[in-house]
TrEMBL record:
PROSITE patterns: HD_GYP (PS51832), RESPONSE_REGULATORY (PS50110). InterPro entries: CheY-like_superfamily (IPR011006), Cyclic_di-GMP/3'3'-cGAMP_PDE (IPR052020), HD/PDEase_dom (IPR003607), HD_GYP_dom (IPR037522), Sig_transdc_resp-reg_receiver (IPR001789). Signal peptide: none annotated. It comes from hydrothermal vent metagenome. This is Response regulator. Residues 12-128 form the Response regulatory domain. The lineage of its organism: unclassified sequences, metagenomes, ecological metagenomes.
Length: 370
């Protein structure tokens, strides 16, 4: 264990007291320590000053004009900006109930007046050191957690890369549809954290295709009924591969793998879910995946034009797709097309009008539209 002393020079201490004499004594006591000190003469002033000053420790009197020290402490602990600063109560009240109340509202220590300078300084140093060590530990935990999350993400990305070797879809497809999903999630009102999860989880929607025989997965023509039933199992296979994850990323990826082939009207698979029974991330990924599949070239078809793909999305609103998401997708189409252009296939145009044939939604089986 590291036993090196914690450097407390320059740490910030906020003194909250309505009595000038008490403030002078405390300032004199703390002066040799080279702390940065701020003064508040009452609770209201402390609540305004603390979020700006960002104290490392607060010395707080209890009996003051306006709100007392207990309420001041309670409000400081409710504020995310100031809640970590340790609060030491300094009061003439030595009643046990007063001391217990101080700890109850979030104080870490209680010193009674008149106090000895040596005692006050020792307690202040002790709590500043504990606070600094706790902050260091929290930072290390955050760093380790970030490293763990990055490792998990890298493993999942390699799984996606593995599935690409079995399918005729390209890495650019994954990049486009995951970003379409993120844009749609943001337009729907998902926060930044959820959008980040969607960006990294949506590429795993077809992970289950690693379990589909090549004779079916790579068949250049239309699948027959038996083959299509086998193809449909890629959803449950993907779910099984991703099942049991403890991270939000794995859990969302599992949900997407299982539900991205469900349809708003209940005609999808594997469970025939309807409407909002289908998790939002599954509904979002389905729309993003279909749009990219339609507007991308495959060995057995030319790309649909954006106009034709949008027309189909409008036609399938309320059938295949969540109608609200379909409308949002069309609303953000300029942003979608920017992504499409940025991640276009090398040497390919982004909007092709020529067609070898014009498949229906069900006929583009290899593009996850069955």
């Amino acid at each position: 264990m590291n036993n090196q002393p914690v450097d407390l020079e320059g740490m910030k201490v906020l003194i909250v007291d309505d009595t000038t004499a008490n403030i002078d004594v405390l300032r004199k006591t703390l002066a040799p320590q080279q702390f940065e000190i701020a003064i508040a003469l009452n609770g209201e002033a402390a609540l305004k000053l603390a979020p700006k000053f960002l104290p490392d420790l607060i010395l707080l009197d209890i009996r003051m004009p306006g709100i007392d020290g207990y309420e001041t402490c309670r409000q400081l602990k409710e504020n995310a900006i100031t809640q970590k600063a340790p609060v030491i109560f300094i009061s003439a009240n030595s009643d046990t109930q007063d001391i217990v109340e101080g700890f109850h509202v979030g104080g870490v220590d209680y010193i009674t007046k008149p106090f000895r300078a040596e005692e006050v300084l020792a307690r202040i140093r002790s709590h500043l050191e504990l606070s600094a060590l706790r902050n260091t530990l929290e930072e290390k935990v955050l760093q380790r957690t970030d490293l763990l999350n990055k490792s998990r993400l890298e493993i999942l990305q390699r799984l996606v890369k593995t599935s690409e070797f079995k399918d005729n879809e390209t890495g650019m497809h994954i990049r486009r549809m995951s970003r379409y999903s993120t844009l749609l999630g943001k337009a729907h009102g998902l926060n930044e954290e959820k959008c980040e999860l969607l960006l990294n989880a949506s590429p795993m929607h077809d992970l289950g295709k690693v379990g589909i025989p090549d004779r079916i997965l790579l068949k250049p023509g239309k699948l027959d009924h038996e083959e299509m039933e086998i193809m449909k199992t890629h959803t449950t296979i993907g779910g099984e591969i991703l099942a049991g994850g403890t991270s939000e990323l794995l859990q969302m990826a599992e949900t997407i793998a299982l539900t991205h082939q469900e349809k708003w009207d209940g005609s999808g698979y594997p469970k025939g879910l309807t409407g909002e029974e289908i998790p939002l991330e599954g509904r979002i990924t389905a729309l993003a995946d279909v749009f990219d599949a339609l507007t991308s070239e495959r060995p057995y078809k030319k790309a649909w034009s954006v106009e034709k793909a949008v027309n189909l999305i409008e036609e399938e609103s309320g059938k295949h797709f969540d109608p609200e998401l379909a409308a949002l997708f069309i609303k953000i189409l300029p942003e979608i097309l920017q992504v499409k252009e940025r991640f276009k296939e090398p040497g390919k145009e982004t909007d092709t009008e020529d067609f070898v044939f014009t498949p229906t939604l069900k006929e583009v089986a290899h593009d996850n539209l069955g």
